[in-house]
Amino acid sequence: MASKCKDPLETSVLNANNLKHDFSCSVCKEDDLNVEAKHFCGDCLEFYCDKCLTFHAKIHRRHAVLGRKDVDKWVEQGDALVSCDLHPSKVLELLCEDHAELCCHICVSLNHRLCRDINLISDVTKGIHKMANFKQLLVNVTKVTAKLNQTKDAIKKNQNLLNTSGKSMLTRIKDLRKTLNQLLDDQEKRTMEQMDRVLADLDGSLQKDIDHCDRLHDQLHVLLDSALSQDKDSKSGSYIGYRKCQDKMAEANELLQALSMKPEATITFQPDTRPQQLLSDLKALGIIQVYLDPQFEQSSRQIKQSSDILKVFKVKEKNTFAVNIKADKILCDIIGMIELSGGEIVLVDSKHCRAKVLDSNYKVTCHCDIPKFPQDICLISDHQVAVAVDGYPSAKHEVHFLTVSAGTITTTRKFKVNHLCSSIRHHGGQLYIGSLAALYLHTTTGKLLKKVYEDTSGKVTVNNFDLSTDGSKIYILASSHNKVVTIDTKGNILATLMDPDFDWPLSVHVSECGHVFVSSQASNTVVQVDQEGKKKLATLVRKGDGINIPQAVLYCTRTGRLIVGGQQNNILVMELQ
Prior knowledge:
Layout lengths: L7 H10 L8 H5 L8 E3 L4 E3 L1 H10 L5 E2 L5 H5 L17 E3 L4 E3 L1 H7 L6 E3 H4 L7 H4 L1 H92 L6 H27 L12 H8 L15 H10 L8 E8 L11 E6 L5 E5 L4 E5 L5 E6 L4 E6 L4 E7 L6 E9 L2 E9 L6 E5 L2 E5 L3 E6 L4 E7 L9 E4 L5 E6 L4 E6 L4 E6 L6 E6 L5 E5 L4 E5 L6 E6 L10 E5 L4 E5 L4 E7 L1
Helix pairs in contact: 8-9
């Protein structure tokens, strides 16, 4: 009959194995023994008990071994592999399977008290050297480190290219500054030359009058002296002198009369404020554009997350500018705006069927008539725009191309489409045209390529739209449902956004940097939306802010200004920060 009592030696061994040590002998662990370490070898990075140290000393006599009195230096001397990251003085001895984390005893007590599956590392490491994954560790690590080195080299190459590009850009910026300085120097020189010519002409005229006065003055004195010096018997000489003095005095009086009527010459300088205004309107001499390499896709996402795209705007200052002209008989109806490369603004006035060009001071410089009725406008090139024209309910569905050049704007060509033409955008050399309930893709010559998107759930589900800067997303205003729908170029819905400030959304604009702005007609609001189309970031315009029925919005990156047009003769221009 077997005894129920355990052997005392066996019990002692079991109790020893259940003890928890700060450092256990590395050699004994391999024999499944839990023996406290009394020594640490900094060269081997192993812990040893007294017994195992004897064998170690015979093999590695020159290794530096630390005893228990230097236990604080054990981890510092290179045992980072087994030390806890959160508690460096403690050794990793446990594995939390619930979190797949290596832990020390403090980690378990603080962060893993409720975890159910916690094991000693010594229990899970049995046969580690025979595991296939462990045998492949060197190969796998080598592959990963090789890829890291390859990626690092590519990033360094890109970094060097950026540095080179930065130096090149700096040179171009300085050259531009030199050019501007030279232009200003030339203007200054011409202005001073003009001033010198004017001064010389005025000075010559004044000097001529001075010389005339001096000449008459001297002539009178000579004649007077001659008349008075005649002998009393020479009556004829005295008479002749008298008459000549009288004639010369008459001439002098005529001169004095003429000079008294002649206004005093003055000269002033009236500076041309346009260059100063233009420079003050600019935030920089140009735009620094970033082109990201596809191989750094992850870095690209991180850069975008930390870039200006996340900026939430606030209104710093606002002003209004008149955009009506003498020929306008009724209230303006601004339904679309774009900015040319030179900074001019081209807007479409639907009620007057006109396209108007504004300068940097928002003054109308030229205009042209458009057939009934213009619906929207988009930028084609530096000096060309396209206007969507639709006479619905009539059958006129057209796109008109206008060119701005030499202070004029003229229609150069047009084409017809077989659907409503209510909104228009240009991207990648192609035209996207909206028809209130669908979105179509055309070539710039008018050929229909495909129907991108359609929503028949309401009368106006594609009232207006715009594309993200990379063309991967399209923000669509479903006015009938008071929401913004974001789709990809295949027509798949990526996001929908509804908000109380979206009451009949009518215009959406994406800036050069990717900021999204939405204006709503009924709520009299302009809202900034995140680039995913999932969240409202800020409401920039509300009712009473100086715009009636906002239905066109444009953000000018160069000036940092948001321009809003509506059913009134003024546009609202806001400085954002």
